[in-house]
Amino acid sequence: MAGEDLIDVKFRLFDGTDIGPSKYDPTTTVASLKETILARWPQGKEIAPRTINDVKLINAGKILENNQTIAESRTPVCELPGGVITMHVVVRPPMLDKNNEKLGKAQKTNRCACTIL
Questions:
Q1: Residues 67-94: tens digit of each pLDDT
Q2: How is the chain classified by DSSP, letter by letter?
């Protein structure tokens, strides 16, 4: 049966909130999962990804590549039969704008200097 082959996946965001769980076909690519995350990203979060390149998915301690499928990225040792796979979502911080004085000043004042004697 096709319904039995679907995999339950939820995405844990950096602040502990979740997106999902939802059922996905094992042939779904990581890039497709990232597009789903972008579409379902909660409104009102200070940090939000703009593109799929701003998102990294981690499963069982491994960063998943965009061309991998869910089936290729699964770790059967860590999964319970019929359980939900939790993938952690890491968002790349925004790049600093060199033209923006406010960000430039904040960067300069937050520097740490160490001296080794």
A1: 989 888 876 655 566 678 888 999 987 6
A2: -TGGG-EEEEEE-TTS-EEEEEEE-TT-BHHHHHHHHHHTPPTT-SS--SSGGGEEEEETTEEPPTT-BHHHH--TTTPPTTPPEEEEEEEPPPPPPTT-HHHHHHHHHT-------
Question: What pTM did the predictor assign?
Answer: 0.70
Left, alpha or beta for 102 (phi > 0: left; psi -120 to 50: alpha)?
Answer: alpha
Residue 36 to residue 79: CA distance in whole angstroms: 22
Backbone angles phi, psi at 7, to 5 degrees: -115, 130
